[in-house]
Records
---
Amino acid sequence: MHGATNTVSPAGARRGTVVVTTVASDSHTWNLVFLQLLIEELGYEVINLGPCVPDQVLIDACRETAPDLVVISSVNGHGHQDGLRVIDALRACGELASTPVVIGGKLGVAGHQSDAAIGELMSAGFDAVFDDSSSTTREFSRFVGTLSPAARPLERTEVVA
Amino acid sequence: MRPGAHPLRRTAEGARPVDFGAFVRARSRAGDLVVQPRMGFSDPGTMRAGLAATSAADATTVGTITLDSYTRVGELASVDEALSTGAKLNGYPIVTYDRAVTGQVLAGIRDETFPVQVRHGSAVPGDIFAALRRTLINATEGGPVSYCLPYGRTPLDESVRNWVRCTEDFAQLRESGVEPHLETFGGCMLGQLCPPSQLVAISVLEALFFCQHGIRSVSLSYAQQTHPGQDREAVAALRRLCGELLPTPNWHVVIYAYMGVYPTTDEGAYRLLDEATRLAVTSGSERLIVKTVAESRRIPTVAENVAALEAAALTARAARPGGPAPAESDSQTYLEARALVEGVLELSPDIGHAFELAFRQGALDIPYCLHPDNHGRARSYIDGDGRLRWAGIGRLPLAGLVGPARTREATASGLIADLSYVQRAFDRPAMESGAFRDRGRADIAPPESGSS
Ligand code: B12
C-alpha cells in the first residue's frame, strides 16, 4: 500500500512497529489514515493494511512483521461480529498468541457497545476495546504509552530493527 | 411477510416499474424536489416498514434499499452467520434472501408513484445485479471508479470489467419493457476532502461510461462539500458538462447531503441538511438524498429518516430556484472539471480503459485514497474562506489552472481539523447556546499532541 500519508520521521529510532487494519467487510479508510498519523506521532512505524482486509492478509502481515501492537479499526457497524472472528484467527497462530491486539470504532449498528458486548470482545482475546461512544483517542494514546518496547521478545526486536 | 400480498407479475402492464429517471424529472418539472433516504435494514419486515413510511412521508419521495457491507464484498457466509445469531446488519442482504422475500418487501408499496432504488457500494456486483434483475428493480447506483477506489481493494481493472458486464446486462432489462436507470456515485469520492472539480469530472465520466454500455436513463451525483458558493458553482459546472457531453436527454442531478464527518447535535445536523436542500433547489437539481440526526453515531431509525425527509421537503418548498446558470461563465470549477474530463477522454475511446490509464498516470488522483491503484500524489485542504482547494495537483492536468503546491506536513490533528471543519461549523451555534445535551462523546476528539 502506498502514498497514504507522508510519514513523520523524527530523528532517531522508532519504538517499534504497529499494524493498523480494518476488517474484511469495512471499506472506511479515514479512520485508518488518522490512526496511522497518530501512532506515527507516538513514535512507532506503522504498517497500514488499508480497507477491507481479509483475515488471511492480516494474519500473514502480522506473521511477517511480528508487530508490537495490532490496531483494528471498524466503523461500519460489523466490527463486533468481525472482530470476534479475527481475534480467534490471530490467537490461533502460536507466534501471535500474546501480541497486544486492540479494537475500536463504531462496532455495532446501534450506537454503542453494551458492557456485555465489550466483555465478549475482551474474553475473546482483545487487550483493549475503544468503543467510540465510551472512549477517546486520548485513552488510546495512553494505552500505547504503556506498551514497553523492552517487554518484546528479542527475536522480534531484530525483525523491526 | 404481509399476508395476501401478491408477488410482482412480470407480464402484467401495471407491474412494470416506471423509469426512475423519467419519474424524477416529471416531479421536478411539476416544481417538487424529490427527496430520498439512505435506508437499509437486515430484517425484511423493517425494510418494508421503512419503504412504506418513506412513501407515506409528507414529501415527494422515492424509496431506497441500501445493501449491507457483507453483501457488498461477497462475504455471504457472514450474512448467514449474522442472520442466524440475530446480529443486525448495516443494510439489506438482497443476494441472500430468496427473491420471493424481496418481492414481498416491495409488494403493494413500489408502484408508478413510488419507485425504489437499490444502493450498494460493490466493485464485484455481479450477484447484486442478478438479484436486481430477478425482482425487476430497475434503478441502482455506482460506477467502476466510485464503487471501487473508496470501497475496498478490488483492483481497478477488475472493477471496470465487472461494471462493463453488469451495466450491459442491466441495459437488457429494456427487453422486458423496463427502462434501467443508473446513478453515478462519482460525485462523492471518499465522502470528503476531494475538490469539487474532480467530483464533477468523475460523475460526468461515469455517466458517459454507463451510456457507452447501453444505459439511457442516468443521474449524476454531487455531494455537498465545505462552501455553499463553491458547491453552487460545481453543480452549475456539472449541469453544463451534462448538456455538452451526455448522449441522452434523460439525465438529472442528485445532491447528497454532506457525506463527511457529520455534526453531532440535532440542530447542527438539521442546519446542514437545510443547506444541502437549498443547494439542490437553487442549483436546479431534481433530487436530494438526506442525512439524519443519527448520522454521526449509528444507523438511523425509520422515524429519523422520515423526519429528515419531511424537514428537507419543508425547506425545499420555501426555497427559491436560482434559475439557470449563465452558460458562458467559465467558473474555476468548470474549467478544472472540463480539463479533467478531457484529460481522461483523450486517453482512450473506451471510457473504462481510459479510467484505468488515468489513474495509473495520475490524470485522476483522489486525495488521501489508500487504494493501491490510486496515484496518491494529489492533496487537498480547506482554505481560510472554507473552500476546498488543491494543496498539490500531482500529475493532474491542471497546470496553469491551479497555483503552486502548498507544502504542509500531514499530522493527525491537522487531518482531524480538516475532516471536522463542517461538523464544527454546524455544531458551534448549538454548543454555544447550551442547547447541546451530552450524547456520549463527540465523534472526533482532538488527539493529544504526539511525543516522538
Ligand atoms: C465518510 C464516510 C463514508 C465514506 C468512506 C470513504 C472511505 N474510504 O473512508 C463512504 C461514503 C464510502 C462510506 C460508505 C459506507 N458507510 Co460510511 N460514513 C462516513 C462518515 C460520514 C464519516 C466517517 C469518517 O470519515 N470519519 C473520520 C474518521 C477520522 O473518524 P471515524 O471513522 O469516525 O473514527 C473516529 C473514531 O471512531 C475513532 N476510531 C475509529 N476506529 C478506531 C480504532 C481504535 C483502536 C481507536 C482507539 C479509535 C478509533 O477514531 C476516529 C477519530 O476520533 C460516517 C458518519 C460520521 N462519522 O459522520 C459514516 C458511517 C461510518 N458509515 C456508515 C455506513 C453504514 C456505511 C456503509 C455501509 C453504507 C451505508 N449503509 O450507509 C458504507 C460502507 C461500506 C463498507 N463496505 O464498509 C455508518 C456506520 C453505522 C454504524 N456503525 O452504526 C456511519 C456511522 C453513518 C451512519 N450513521 O449510518 N462512508
---
Amino acid sequence: MITVEGVNHQIGSVRILHDIRTRLPEGRLTALIGPNGAGKSTLMRLIGRLEALQSGRITVAGHDLATTRTGELAKIMAILGQNTAIASRLRVAELVGFGRWPHHKGRPRPQDRDKVSQALEAFALTSLANRFLDEISGGQAQRAHIAMSFAQDTPWLLLDEPLNNLDMAHARGLMTLLSELVRGQGRSVAMVVHEINYAAAWADHVIAMKDGRIMAEGDPDTVLTEAVLSKLYDTPVSVGRHRNRPLVLHHA
Amino acid sequence: MRLLPAAATVVLVILMLASLLIGVAQVDLLAAWRDPYAMLVLMESRLPRTLAVLLTGAALSVAGVVIQSLVRNRFVGPDTSGTAEGAALGLLAITILVPGSPIWLRMIAASASAMVTTALFLAVIRRLPVREVMLVPIAGLVLSGVLGAIVTFVGWQADLMQYVGTWLMTGEFSGVIAGRYELLWIAGLAAALAWFAADRLAILSLGDQVATGLGLSTATVMRLGLTVVAVVTAMVVTTVGMIPFIGLVVPNLVARVMGDNLRASLPVVAVSGALLLLTCDLVARLAVYPFELPVGLILGILGGGIFLWLLHHRPAHG
Ligand SMILES: Nc1ncnc2c1ncn2[C@@H]1O[C@H](COP(=O)(O)OP(=O)(O)O)[C@@H](O)[C@H]1O
Ligand SMILES: [Mg+2]
C-alpha cells in the first residue's frame, strides 16, 4: 500500500497540492485522472521521490520516503516520469538494461539479462533492440522507457501518462500487460491516465484530482459517474455501460 | 566494426614508433640499447614526449565525455566550461600567495579551483531552459571568457603573464622531458576513475528523474564527475598547457558510431583521443621541420573543421 498523509506542495508562492491524504491499494491497478494542471504529475513525482517532500508523509509498502535510502526505494518502486525525452544516444537494449541497475549495480548477472530480454519481448522491442533511441519513433521510444521500468521488476510500478504516443493496439497491449501484472503476479500499478476510458476499462481504483485536491476516489463504478466527471472536467459528459464497465461519452 | 579496435591499436603503435623516431637528433631505435647517446635521447626526451601526448589526448577526451554527461549537452568540452581557466586561476593564486610552493600544493590549488569554476558552470546552465541546446555551449564560452579575462588581469598585475600564456594559450609538447611530464599520469588515473563510474555517468545523462528513479544519488555522481574533469584539466594545464578541441570532438565522433553506453565507449574514446593528438603532434613536428608548430594550432584547424561538420550533421533528435 502507498499512503499519503497531509501532503502540501508549492512552487514559489503557488499552491500546487492542498493537504492530500489518500491510499493506493496494493495488488490493484490505480488510475489517477483529472484535467490538465490538476497536480497529478506532481503527486506522482512526490510519491516517486523525484521531488522533495515539503510537508506531510508518504510511505510505499511500509517504507517511509523520508527515511529510506533512494537505492533501496529503487527496488520497491519503479517510476516513469511524464517527460521521457532524453538526449542520450543509447540503444534500446541498453536503456532497458539500465532498469536492472538497482539490482546489480553494474555487474549484470544471468537473471538480469533474462529480465531484459523478457521486457524487450513483452513490449515488442526485440527487433529494435540494437537501434539507437534517436533513430526510432516517439511511440517506440516511449515503449522502450516503459520496458525499462518493467525490467526494474519492482512490487510497485508508477507510470505518468504511459499511453502518450502509443497507438491503439500498443495502448491496449500495455493495459493488458499491466492488468496481467496486477492479477497474475500480485503487483501494484499506479498510473496517470489521460484518456478516461482506459481507466474505465482497466482500473480497479480511481483517484480523481482537480485544482490540487482529490475530488473523488473509489472503484470505477462510483467515481466514473456523470455527476463526478462533469464537475471534474467542467464539461457535460454522459456515462453508458459496455461489458459491465462504465463507458464515458463526451460527443456533443 | 569488430576490427576497428584492433586496427586503431595497430595505427597507434605505428604512430608511437614514428613519434619515437622523429626529431632533430637522429636516433636508431634498434641501436639504442648499445648507443648510450641514442638511449639518452630516447628515455629523456622522445619517450616522455610520446607518453605525454598519449596521456593528454586520452585523458582530455575522457574528461570531455564526463563534462558532456554532467551537462547533458554534446557541445561542450573541458576547454569551454570554465575548467581550464579555473585551473589557471588556482595556479596564479597559489603562485602569488605562497611563492615557491611545492608542486603537490600547486596541483591541489589548480584542481580545487578548476572544480569550483566547473561547478559554477553547472549551476549556471541548470537555470537555462532545457530545450535551448545551443545556450549551454554559449554560456560555457562566456564563462570561460570572463574567467580568462580575470586570469589575464591578475597575471598582468602580478607580472606573471608569461606563465598564464603557457597555461592557457599554447598547449604544446616541445618542452616535455623526463621529470617534467609525470603529473600527466595523475590525469590518466583520474580518467580511469571515470571508467569505474561509467554506468553511473551514463545513467546521470538520462536526466535527474530517471537517475533518481533508478536509485542513483545524483549529487554523488556529479561530484565524482567534477573531480575527474577538474583533475584531468588541472594536470594538463600545469604540465603542457591547455589543448583545445580534443575534449569536444573525440566524444562526439565516438558517440556517433558507438552511442553513449559509456562502459563500452570510454576505452574507445581514450584510444581515439590519444590517436588524434599524437597525429596532430606529429604533423606539428613535421610540417616545418626542423622547426615545430604548436600542436594547438593543428588541432584548432582540424578540430574546428570536425566541429563544424558535426553541427551540420546532427542526429535527428539532437
Ligand atoms: N515548474 C513549475 N513552476 C510553476 N508551476 C508549475 C511547475 N510545474 C507545474 N506547475 C503547475 O503545477 C500545477 C500542477 O501541475 P502537474 O502536476 O504537472 O499537473 P497535471 O500532471 O495534473 O497536468 C499546474 O497548475 C502547473 O501549472
Ligand atoms: Mg501531468
---
Amino acid sequence: MDFGPFLLLALMEGLVTAAVLALTASGLSLAFGIMRVVNVAHGAFFMLGAVLAWFVSQWVPGPAALSFAAALVICPLIVGGIAALADTVVLKRLNYEPEATIVATIGLLYILEQAALSFFGPDARPVPAPLNFRIQLPWFGYSGYKLMVVVGAALVLLAVWLILRHTKAGLVMRATQIDRDTARAFGINVDRVYAGVFAMGAGLAAIAAVLIVPIQQAHYLMGGDPLLLSFIVVIIGGLGSLRGTLVAALLIGLSDGVISTFFAPTLAKIIATLVVALVLVFRPQGLFGTRAA
Amino acid sequence: MLRLDDLQAGYGAVQVLHGLSLSVATGEVLCVMGRNGAGKSTMLKAIMGQVRTSAGTIDLDGTRIDPLPAHEVSRHGIGYVPQGRRLFGDLTVAENIEIGLMTRNRGAAVRERVLDLFPRLRERMGQISRTLSGGEQQMLAIARALCLEPKVLLLDEPTEGLQPSMIALIRDTVIALKGTGVATILVEQRVDAALSVADRIAFVVGGRVAETVDAAGLSPNAPEFINHVGV
Ligand SMILES: Nc1ncnc2c1ncn2[C@@H]1O[C@H](COP(=O)(O)OP(=O)(O)O)[C@@H](O)[C@H]1O
Ligand SMILES: [Mg+2]
C-alpha cells in the first residue's frame, strides 16, 4: 500500500481509538469535575461493561444486533447502578476526602476485577459484532462496524453535552460543581447529584466498552489501558473540562493510530506519557482546564 | 414565625454559638448586628442546616427544621442571601434565577414578578453572573432567593461594599417585601442602613443575643451601638 492510503488507514484506526477514549475519559472527567473524585476504578467499570456485554450476548437470543442493542442499554444501567451504590455506601461516608476516595476506588477496582474473574473466568471472550459489512475504499476495505463505533460515540457525547447544557439535571450538576453548600441552600440534594454523576461517569465507560468489545474481546483485566489512557487524556485536556477531554482524546487517539501503525504501539504509549509529563510541568491545569479554584 | 431557641453550634471542636435565641414574626424586619466574628453568619448557616447545631431548636411555623438535611430547609420557604453573595459564578443570570425557581417549583410568573423588582437583571439574562458589577451581583443574589417565594428571608450583609444608590434599592426592596408579609432577618453592619428598615435590632455578642431593642425612635448614637458594634 502507498503511504497516503496507509496514513488514511492509520488515521481511521486512530479515530476509533479516539472515539472510545473520548467516551471513557469524559466519564472520568465528569466525576472529577463535579465531585472532585479521582476514580481509580473507572477502568474496572469499563471492563465490567465489556464482561456484562458478553453475558448479555449469551442470554439474549436471536440476531447479534438484537443482543448488542440490549447490551447497549442493560450494561450501562447495571454498571451505573453499581457505581451509584459504591458512591452512597463508600465515597459519601468518606466525605469525599481526596486521598481517602483514591484508596477506596483502588479497593473497588480489585473487588470488581476479582468478581469478574470469579463469574466470568480468566479467558478473553469474543462478543459478535451487531453487523458485518465492509466499506470498500479505492485502496482498502474497512470495517463498517468500526465507523459505527465512531458515530455511536459521537452521538453519546453529544447527548452528554446536551444534558449538561440544556436540561435541568445538567443545570443542577453544574451548580453543584460550582458551590455545593449554596446548591444545598437552594434545595439541591447534593448526595443524589453525586450518586447520579458517579453513575453517569461509570455508565459512559460501560457504553464505550460495549462499543469496543466486538473489536477487542472481553477480559477481566482489560480495564488497565483505558484507565491509563483516560488519565492521560484528562490531564492533557484539563481535569473536569469536557471540551479539553474531547480535544485531548482526538490528539491521543489519532497519534496512537499513526504511531502504532508506522512504528510500534509501545512507542505511542511512551510518547503519550511523555506529553503528560510535559503538560504537568508546564501547564498543570491542562490545555483547557482552569486553575483549581 | 421563625424562632431560634438556645442554639449551640460551631465548626468541629470550636463552638461559636453559645445559646443564641431570637425570633422574627410575619412582616417584621429583624436586624442582627455585632462585631466581626460574633457568630452572625454562623447563626444563618445554622438556620440553613449548613452548620449542625449541637443543642437548641429552630422552629418555623411550629415545625422544627433543625433536624432537616440542608437541602430541605429552603423548601420550607426560607430564602438565603449568603455573605459575599455566593452566586453560581460560571452560570448565567438566567440560570441562577432558574435554580432559585426550581427550589420550590415556581414558574415564569414568579420570575417575572422578581425581575420587575430588578429590571437591570432582565437586560442581562444571558450574561455570566461572575462578570456583573458588585451591585448587580447583589441584586441577583437577592432575586435568586426571592424566586422561591420565601416566607422568611435571610440576608447576610447585603450592603457590604455597595454604593449608596444600591443600598437604597436594597432598603426599598426589604421594605416592599415586609409589606407582603415576609419575615426578614437582616445582618447589617451600618447603623444608618439598619435603622432605615429595622423593626427591632438584636445585638449578637460572643455567640448569643446580648440585647434586643425596638428600632423606632432609636438614635444612631444610642449606647447599644457603641457597646455592641463599636462605632
Ligand atoms: N468555616 C469555618 N470554620 C471554622 N471556623 C469558622 C468558620 N467560619 C467562621 N468561623 C469562625 O466562627 C466565628 C464566627 O464567625 P461568623 O459567624 O462568620 O461571624 P460574623 O458573621 O458575626 O462576623 C469566627 O471566630 C470565625 O473565625
Ligand atoms: Mg458574617
